[in-house]
Design brief:
Layout: E1 12-17, E2 20-25, H1 36-50, E3 57-62, E4 67-69, H2 74-82, H3 86-105, E5 110-114, E6 117-119, H4 121-126, E7 131-134, E8 139-141, H5 155-160, H6 166-173, H7 179-185, E9 190-191, H8 197-205, H9 213-218, H10 228-231, H11 233-240, H12 245-254, H13 258-269, H14 272-285, H15 291-307, H16 311-321, H17 343-347
Parallel strand pairs: 2-3, 3-5, 4-6, 5-7, 6-8, 7-9
Antiparallel strand pairs: 1-2
Helix pairs in contact: 1-3, 2-16, 3-15, 6-14, 11-12, 12-13
Length: 356
């Protein structure tokens, strides 16, 4: 198994075979968590393959059997912020979001295999691909509110277009989706059993024209089981249609379903400001024209948290640094949220624009 700390071991494996360009994230011990160098390597490969007549399809996957990508380097983000190096934060997110947009707009099909854990930055890679494959081992989430943060990498764009109020539910709670949930929410397209992935990769290389990647995936996919999200739509749509986080919690408390009560308890533990900003971000994303506009909105929110609000640093400290699991949010409760709690975040203007 590759050592993610070994400087001689490429963190992204780049291979070509029979018309397929394959990018494999190669930090298996870290569940292929993204760093700046990996983003640069993937971007360079896509640039090189775009006009290469010998490359017809790109396959994106992860080394090891734990997952495609556990997300970005949150510990590194913490060190940048407390070290006063927020300009590095800006550089990282600009590069990451450019890659997210590049994947979404790429002129050749990109098949992303989100086998295992795919969260945060991993959703930014797989969620915008043209063909998005999950397996029975897949676990997908945008868990940013759990560290006092807000979903990014185009996550609010994807969740804004989920059925009903499922997007608000997933964004605020950070709940994990299995393959059925991900397909139902619109974050994935096809369920392929993990035992069939090797055959799928071989078929993509040995395909017979005019078969498309989607047609080939359909040879190996299975019909997903009913999604628990679909079964929970009644209480999710009722509660998460409320105007504010406080009202969402009130509606959850008024429901008879045990899951609704448990969700209210969970929201009470999370960063109130992050919840308010995230709720507004998903709803604004529904009115945005495209992914690039959404990424620009997220970029401003991310830098607002990184440069202005203490909850992001506090959330990372509590979860990953001191690991005391006792964050001290500001404000500490949803009841203390000001009516315009998200206004400052959306008014924030980064010194360097995302698309500039």
């Amino acid at each position: 198994m590759s050592d993610p700390l070994d400087p001689t071991e490429p963190r992204v494996l780049r291979r070509t075979d029979a018309g397929v360009g394959r990018l494999t994230l190669n930090r298996p011990r870290a569940i292929n968590a993204l760093d700046f160098g990996m983003i640069e390597l993937m971007a360079a490969a896509l640039d090189a393959w775009e006009h290469d007549p010998d490359i017809d399809i790109v396959v994106l996957d992860g080394a090891g059997d734990r997952g495609l990508c556990a997300g970005g380097d949150v510990r590194g983000l913490y060190e940048q912020i407390i070290g006063g190096r927020t300009e590095e934060t800006s550089v990282f997110f600009r590069a990451e979001y450019a890659l997210n947009a590049r994947i979404a707009e790429y002129p050749k099909p990109i098949v992303a295999i989100a086998d295992g854990i795919t969260m945060g930055g991993g959703i930014g890679l797989a969620g915008h691909a043209s063909v998005r494959v999950v397996t029975e081992r897949s676990r997908l989430a945008m868990p940013e509110t759990r560290i006092g943060f807000t979903p990014d990498v185009g996550g609010t764009w994807l969740l804004a277009h989920a059925p009903g109020r499922v997007g608000e539910y997933l964004a605020l709670t950070g709940s994990t989706m299995d393959a059925s949930d991900a397909i139902y929410a619109g974050v994935a397209d096809h369920l392929v059993p993990s035992a069939n992935l090797t055959d799928l990769r071989e078929a993509l290389s040995s395909r017979a024209d005019p078969a498309t990647p989607t047609e080939l995936v359909l040879l190996f996919d299975e019909t997903p089981a009913p999604s628990r999200l679909e079964g929970a739509r009644a209480w999710i749509d009722d509660a998460f249609a409320a105007d504010t986080v406080g009202e969402i919690v009130q509606r959850l408390r008024a429901r008879a379903e045990p899951e609704a009560s448990a969700t209210a308890d969970l929201l009470g533990e999370l960063a109130p400001t992050a919840l308010a900003v995230t709720l507004e971000a998903v709803r604004r994303a529904r009115a945005l024209p495209d992914l690039r506009a959404d990424l620009a909105q997220e970029y401003g929110l991310v830098l607002w948290f990184a440069t202005t609000h203490p909850d992001l640093v506090e959330g990372i400290r509590a979860q990953l640094v001191d690991k005391d699991r006792s964050p001290r949010w500001q404000p500490s409760t949803i009841a203390e949220l000001a009516p315009d709690a998200a206004a400052d975040a959306f008014a924030y203007e980064p010194k360097i624009p995302l698309w500039g």
